[in-house]
Every structure is written in C-alpha cells, then in structure tokens.
C-alpha cells in the first residue's frame, strides 16, 4: 500500500518542507543513483503491464525524453505482476521529490478496466517524473499529459505525492480506462498523510488548488454516480473507496499537528518518528525515506535520508545527490528478489536457458546485504517488544542525531569546494560522508543483532512457532 506524509514549512523548526514515507512491498529493495542521461531522437521506453499481471494489459512503447535528470530512487521487483524493476519514487536533481501510494478506485471502475489496457503504470509515471519534472506542478502536468496521450495501466487505482520546496500535489490516477485523474495542491500550511491517497470535495471547475480533466465530473454524471443537485463532488465518495481518511491517517495527521503547535514546532526527529513509529511501520514497510525540500546552491547537495528497511528498526542515513555510487551492501542482492530462486550464479546453462542465469553482479552478491541484515534485526526486536525493540529504536534515533549534528559542517565544506571550482573534491567529501555512515550503521546493526539473538536464546524466548510477532498497527 505504501505511506507518504507531507509537512509544510510553516510547521517546521528549520523552515523546510518535508516529504517522507515508505513502500509496502515484500520483495527486495535497493538504492540507486541514476546519472543524467541523453537519448537520441526517436528513442522510446517500454511501459505498461503484461497479460500476466493481476489486472492484465499490453506493453507499449512511448517516446523517451531527450535528456533525463539525475535522480535517486529505491527499486524493487514485485507487485501484482507489474513488470520489474519498479519504483515508488525518490528525488531528482531539480528538487522534485516523489512518493507513490496506493489508492483504491471504485469497484465498478476496476471492473470496467479493459483487459488490453495500455500506457504507463504507476512505477513508469514515478520514473518519468523523476527524469523530467522541474517542479511539483510540472510533475502533475507530465502525468496528465501521458495519461491523455498514451493511456494508463492500473492495478486498481493509485496516487502520488509530488513535492518541491514551494508546494506539493496529491495526484490520484483512477482505474477504468477513462483517463480519470485529480490533483490537489498542498502548501506551506499543509500536513497531509496518504495511506491510501485521497482527495475529498472539489469545485465544479479546476482552480489553483484542484486540477482534473474536463470530463472528470461529467463522466460520473453520465454513469449515474453523481447528481450535481444533491451537493458538491466528493472524489473519494464517487470514484474512490468511499471511506474518507483512514484511521491511521487521522491519527498521524492529528499527532503532527499537535507537535506543530509547540513553541519548537516540528523538528527533523519528529519527521523521522512519523515514519518510524511502530504504530505505523513494521515488516511490510520495505524501506524508509525522508526528503528535506531544500534550495541548495548546487544540485549535488540535495539529500534524501534512506533506511534500507522500515525505520522502526533501521536508521535513516543521508544520501547526497552528488555521490558516485551506492555501497555494495545497499545495491541489489538476490535476497527477496523475485525469480532468483530459479536462477544460478553460474553460466553453464546460459546458452540453452539464459533466463536461469542471475544478472546480479557476483561481486555485489558476495558483499553483505543490508536489507537482509536489518530485516534480521527487525525480527529479533519484534520478539521482545518491551525490551529490545525500544532499545533498538532509541539507538537509531541517537545515531541520526549524531549524523544531523555533523551535517552542517559537511554541507558547508562541500559547498565551499563547489564554489571554488573543485567539484571532484566536493563529490569525494560527499561520498566519504554518506558511505561512512552507511557502513557504520550496518556494523552497528550486526552488533545489535548478535546481542539480541543471544539474549533471546538465553531466555528461551526465540519464537519458533508459525505465528510471527510484531507490534499492533493502525493500518
């Protein structure tokens, strides 16, 4: 399902807006730094879903942009048969952040979706925005244009949050094959959680706050789902699941608004808490992200805080746009990667059956897997929720505070190097900082896991039943 939260800068101690969240998928997750790329005239990309998807369709080719922006994203390999690799978003060099969040469409829209649907799927749209958008508003325009020109391949309804330093937009793309979408603007005073993504009452015509295509309301009228004489158009009631704001959304929005009323307002640690609290985050959270929406002097200084699994038992570590590569433990591994149980790191059968050869580099696979190690710690902590879990949670929050204290000097030093015409040295500094903390936190994870395991074993508290333990959640 995924989860996203936007916090406008009027509520924060540092005067920055934030976009945070995580992706709910069971497969492998890995961090990617995608460089800026140029493409020849006539280049295309493959988008859509296959006949094997849960909601089937056909792959198609659409034009690729001549130039694609540098960006960071988390990729994964499994969701309802949609072709991998997939992404729920990230951050690009222009400062546009993307979160993708499930949003159920009305059952009748799902039923009327053509089985030969074509056009970009939710992940395609997230990638396209990361590659092309220079603002959150432009992200909405890009998605709207692509849906109108090429269609939309759905798995039952979806939404995105697009954010930049000035504003954010919640955009919902509906099932049904009718090109239905709606977008709501969020500003500096907004606190908005999505799980699922929702939009409520909208005006009869698009305005500065709400955007939608010309046929958006008339389609509902023609289908007999809406009568203008009976009141305003409620998007969630007409085209969505009809449930409004879910309990978890109401709880976290109310809690963050309460924190915003304090003299100190919302700090970075509060933003982290909003995606790390065990009331909202568990094993289903494949990773965590926090993006401070800044305006740095150099694009390489944009940063995305990344947790390799749900931040309830993992730290968020700053990843700078300017770093050259991701450390091997945080790259793609075979652990939880869909299809890897039928493949080999061996080429003997390549000529006859090339599909059985693993394409993950052997040198990467022989490195430690951060996702595996942090998952191990998570499930150790979940077996002792009154003791080990709070200790692990506190440890990572202390580590994040230490990183945050170091960050201003690193940012200032790298900025001075960029200003002095020494970009290579600046990038070297950023690489060293991000890599050092990614490595150090993985080392901490291994130590915490060893200690937790021997404690549970000594107490006879290792859970060997087929009923996994985890904290209760509001979702």
From TrEMBL:
Its EC number is 3.4.-.-. InterPro entries: Peptidase_C69. It catalyses: an L-aminoacyl-L-amino acid + H2O = 2 an L-alpha-amino acid. It comes from the Bacteria. It is an enzyme of class 3 (hydrolase). Keywords: Dipeptidase, Hydrolase, Protease. GO terms for molecular function: cysteine-type exopeptidase activity; dipeptidase activity. The keyword Flavoprotein does not apply. Gene3D superfamilies: Penicillin V Acylase, Chain A. GO terms for biological process: proteolysis. The keyword Magnesium does not apply. Belongs to the peptidase C69 family. This is Dipeptidase. It comes from Pseudaminobacter soli (ex Li et al. 2025). The lineage of its organism: Bacteria, Pseudomonadati, Pseudomonadota, Alphaproteobacteria, Hyphomicrobiales.
